[in-house]
Structure formats: C-alpha cells, structure tokens
UniProtKB/TrEMBL annotation:
<dbReference type="InterPro" id="IPR007183">
    <property type="entry name" value="UPF0280"/>
</dbReference>
<dbReference type="InterPro" id="IPR003374">
    <property type="entry name" value="ApbE-like_sf"/>
</dbReference>
<protein>
    <submittedName>
        <fullName>Uncharacterized protein</fullName>
    </submittedName>
</protein>
Length: 294
C-alpha cells in the first residue's frame, strides 16, 4: 500500500497546526514563546513526513499478532505497547494512532524546547504534556443518547501522557458494543491499546440486539480477519447495558491493577462507568472554553 500525495501542513486560525497524510490527520497545539512554538511545529512537520511510508512498508507485520520485530520507530512503539497487554489477542495496529501521536509530540519536546504545554491529537487519540496549566478533556459524550460524558483533568506530574478512545461507532472496528471507551495512560499508544481491549469487552455475546459481520467482509485487509465485528446495536434494556458495562469495567480494573492505565470511562447507550483517577462526570458548570475532545 502506498500514497502518492505528499504530506501537507496547514496553520489553523487559532494558532494550531494540522498535519495530514493519507489516513493520518493530526492537530498540534503548543503553549510557550512564539519562537519556541514555531520551532516545535517545524520539528513536528519534519518528523511527520516519513511516518506513513515507513508504516506502509511494514504493514503486513503490523496487521499480524506475532512475527519478527518491526524496524521503524513508530512500528516498534506499537509493538511495545501491545506486548504489555499479553496474553490478550491484539495486533500492533491497535496502537497505531496513539503511537503516531506520541512520536510527533516527542519531536515537539526535543531538547530545550521552551514550551509549557503541547499536544498531538490524532483523531481523538491524544499525546500530551504539560509543565504548568492542566489540560481538560471532554470524553465519552453522546448527545443523541443524552449522555453528557465526563471530564478528564490532566496536570503536570499526573503520570498521564496519553488519552485514547475506542468503540463500535469509532474509526476502527470493535468486537464489543461500547459507544465509547476513553482511557488515560502513560502514553497515547498504551491508552490506544487499552481502549481497544476494554471496548471489545463491553459486550453481550449472542444477544439478538447486536448485529455483527466478519471484519474481512467489511475491510478485506483488516487485522481482525474473520472475527465478527459490531455493525449495529438496537436499544438495550437497562439490565443488558449494565451487564455489558460490567464486563468492560472488569477488564479496566485488571488493567488498573497491573499499572497499565490510570483511568477509564466506559459508555453504552447513555449509561457510563468511570474507574481509576483523573476522570469525573461532566457537570453543567464545567468550563468548556478550552477543551480537548477525545
């Protein structure tokens, strides 16, 4: 697989930078002196350009659950992140969005960068860092189901460097029925894997309200092969929703106990579970003037 178009960079009116190449769409933000921000964005752009070709060259390995170690920097980050969740079945592709965000943020923070905050948002999977003002994120929102979601507040020294979201309505296929699972972890790659696995666990196997199709029939090159992925979920009873969320929450608690995540928010049809630290239900008085959306 290859892409003929060149990576593009667009300065946004609010001072952020957008980097796009094929399926990768990054929004970068940084706080600090103007010269520091410009230099960080320049490093990010230079680092971003070779990422997609390098991943495409190793795609067969990255879509497999086992095999030789990949060679590229981002690919190796993906593999390290997934290995932490053994023995669960997961391919390195479960970490791709978070790993790309981590890689670009690391370039922004190279050397004596002079920034006070920085983030790389890859379609809702976010790598972030702050030395001063905390970041506030809106997570697990579902206005259609009447769920205002939750807020995550991440400050310096919290040990959280990444946030990721997964669910059957998201960009990637899911084995479960969660509308959204958002995870806080040490890195975006690690959060990405955890969100995928917890979202897979929010499930009702065999339930007639859940429609599934083999992943390979929807996307022939899917890393999930012929595993049935969710394509539709009818309205569930409160007991069924609670049961599905309980299954996912048990996996989230296991990841917490193993030190793999800091916190998680699980949402299904207007109901929610929050576990760990850094997350709380959204309140009407929450300040929404500066939110990242995961």
């Amino acid at each position: 697989m290859s892409w003929t178009e060149r990576p593009t960079a667009h300065a946004l009116p609010d001072g952020r930078l957008r980097l796009v190449h094929g399926p990768i769409d990054l929004i970068l933000g940084a706080d600090g002196p103007d010269t520091a921000v410009r230099a960080a964005f320049r490093r990010a752009h230079e680092t971003f350009e070779p990422i997609l070709p390098a991943l495409a060259a190793e795609l067969p390995r990255l879509r497999a659950a086992s095999g030789p170690d990949p060679e590229g920097d981002v690919a190796r980050t993906m593999l390290r992140a997934t290995r932490r969740f053994a023995p669960a079945f997961v391919t390195p592709m479960a970490a791709v969005a978070g790993a790309v965000a981590d890689h670009v943020l690391a370039a922004m923070l190279t050397g004596d960068h002079g920034l006070t905050r920085a983030h790389a948002n890859n379609g809702g999977d976010i790598a972030l860092w702050t030395s001063q003002a905390p970041y506030t994120l809106a997570v697990c929102e579902n206005p259609v189901a009447g769920d205002p979601g939750a807020r995550a507040k991440i400050g310096a020294g919290d040990g959280v460097g990444g946030v990721a979201t997964s669910g059957w309505r998201g960009r990637s296929h899911s084995l479960g029925i969660a509308d959204a699972v958002t995870v806080l972890a040490r890195s975006a790659a690690q959060a990405d894997v955890a969100a995928t696995l917890i979202a897979n666990a929010v499930d009702l196997p065999g339930h007639p309200a859940v429609t599934r199709e083999p992943a390979c029939e929807i996307a022939p090159d899917s890393d999930l092969g012929d595993r049935p992925v969710t394509v539709g979920v009818a309205t569930l009873s409160p007991a069924a929703r609670a049961h599905a969320l309980d299954r996912g929450a048990a996996i989230a608690q296991d990841f917490l106990a193993r030190g793999l995540i800091a916190g998680a928010c699980l949402a299904c049809q207007g109901e929610r579970r929050i576990t760990g630290r850094g997350l709380a239900p959204a309140l009407p008085q929450d300040d929404t003037t500066e939110l990242l959306h995961a």
